[in-house]
Amino acid sequence: MKISQILPKISRKYQQHKELSQNKEILKKNSVLAGTRTGKTCFIIANGPSLKDQDLKSLADKETFVVNSFWLHPEYEIIRPKYYVTVDTPHLSNKDPNRPFELFEEDLTGRNLVVSQVPETKLFFSVVAEEYIKNNKLFTENPKYYIFRHGTMDENLRFNMDPTIVIPFTKNVIILAIMLAVYMGFETIYLLGCDNNLLAYPSEQAVTNYKHFYNEPPGHIPDSWNKTKYENLIASTLILFQNYRFLREKIAKEYPQVKIYNATPNSFLDVFPFVKFDDIK
Fold first, then answer.
1. Which end of the chain is more exposed for a tag (fewer CB within 10 A), N or C?
2. What pLDDT sits at residue 101?
3. 49-98 residue pLDDT tens
4. Do the Cβ atoms of 277 and 54 come closer than 8 Å?
């Protein structure tokens, strides 16, 4: 291997080690979650449009993970999610230029008001958000945990799933939520709202038509995104589905007691066995 190839790798490793050391105490707090839900069942809810046709009120007394913009769901305070994972980019608001890059897009004030109404919900953010959330006294009523991400998932399954150290960039937040659920000990995991239908549309319509259960605000989608070529959409989706497969294989190898099912109607995500939500007891 050439020196020009080695040096960037050394630099990345050094940066990772430096950032990990800086956040060591913050990440150590995640250890209290290990094995706390051993043998239990949970539901991980994405924000796909299929949620519009599903009655989620039956999940009010269940162990639920929600992600990103789920605070916009009209039944949020009925469901009272147990866990809320928000580490995607973008995911909060771009109105304050002092926010870290990972804190932009959503109405942070509105989210803070809604989420604080359910103080038992445990919140998960990227570690880069910790200082901003603390300084601005956000989500003061909720327990908060922070995740440090670096690197990627690979077919050799060498990536880590322990949130007290480094977790790879997972391509989407649902994969991270599954990792957290497994770390906590959940053994039966159901996925909802995972439509994953980006490739169902021609490239000039894909981003615009790739909806969520909520109405996208004006200007939510940059014009450049609508010019993305279909080849690029295929490449991006391939990485996502591969990451799901890598996760499934790692869990099967290291946590064989864990079973994951996709209860999303008409979902493209066939990495996990499909089940009907109404059939879940």
1. C
2. 47
3. 999 999 999 999 899 999 988 999 999 999 999 999 988 644 444 445 55
4. yes
> Could you tell me how many helices (H) and strands (E) the chain has, helices first?
8, 8
- Give 8-33 pLDDT, tens digit per residue: 555 555 455 566 667 788 999 999 99
**Cα atoms in the 13 Å half-sphere on the side-chain side of 274:** 11
Would you list the DSSP string of 162-193?
-TTSEEEE-SSHHHHHHHHHHHHT--EEEEES
Tell me what pLDDT residue 246 has: 97
Residue 27 is encoded by which pair of tokens?
A: 């990440």
Residue 221 CB neighbour total at 10 angstroms: 13
Buried b / exposed e over 42-81, threshold 16 CB at 10 Å, is bbbbbbbbbbeebebeebeebbbbbbbbbbbbeebeebbb
Residues 6 or more apart in contact with residue 114 via CB below 8 angstroms: 71, 76, 77
The more confidently predicted of residues 15 and 104 is 15
**Angstrom distance (rounded) from CA 255 to CA 257:** 5
pTM, rounded to two decimals: 0.88
Distance, CA of 32 to CA of 101 (rounded, Å): 28
Alpha helices in 1-129 (DSSP H): 3-22, 24-28, 76-79, 108-115
User: Confidence class of residue 272 from pLDDT cuts 50, 70 and 90?
Assistant: very high
Provide the mean pLDDT of the chain: 85
**Nearby residues of 280 by Cβ (< 8 Å), 6 or more positions away:** 190, 263
Sign of CA dihedral 266, 271, 179, 208: negative
Provide the terminal-to-terminal Cα distance of the chain, rounded to the nearest Å: 55
